[in-house]
Amino acid sequence: MAKTGFWLQGAKGKLRNNNPLNIRIGNDWVGEVSHPTDKDFEQFEKMSYGVRAAFIILHNYIVRHKLTTVPEIIHRWAPNNENNTKKYVETVLNRMNFEPQQEISWWNKDVMCNLFQAMCYVENGCVIDDCVVKEGYDLAVGQWKPI
Fold it and tell me: How far, in Å, CA of 106 to CA of 13, rounded?
């Protein structure tokens, strides 16, 4: 497929919406489009805002809810009633080269970006530009200080 900007032509709506991890409508996010056309999923002005929103959700899972392993995070992100959660977990672990019990630290940018890209692959069948992922992480992490 040919690249156009930071998303692929013909890709699922999540990338077309600059929403690579398929965040459902429900919050007021920085960078949301002013006149959305998708009634189910968030739409962002640019990809880094969609990545930022995903990282904020992941931050909440890891820091607030103490979900610190891939299986814990994915079971909340992609519950069995909507997804093949077991396959999702397996794919993310394989792409990250992680063991199920390995802990994830919010403050480890490389691991967080790797987690994001592995989840993006499951959600879309592709990854996005690493620079955009790092930009989205930086936009999200700027809101908090290390605990």
Answer: 28
> How do residues 135-146 score in pLDDT, each as one tens digit?
999 999 987 655
Please answer whether residues 42 and 50 qualify as being in contact, where contact means their C-beta atoms are separated by less than 8 angstroms. Answer: yes
State the Cα angle at 59 between 33 and 68, rounded to 5°. Answer: 145
Highest-confidence segment of 7-16, 29-38, 87-96: 87-96
Q: Residues 44, 33: contact at Cβ < 8 Å? A: yes
For 25, 50, 104, 107, 108, the CA distances from 67, given in Å and listed in that order, are: 23, 21, 9, 14, 15
Cβ–Cβ contacts within 10 Å for residue 102, how many? 13
pLDDT in tens, 106-115: 999 999 999 9
Both tokens of 65, joined, read 């809810």
pTM over cut 0.90: no
10 Å CB burial of residue 77 (0-12, 13-18, 19+) is: buried
Give 38's DSSP letter. Answer: -
Q: How many CB atoms lie within 10 A of CB 133?
A: 25
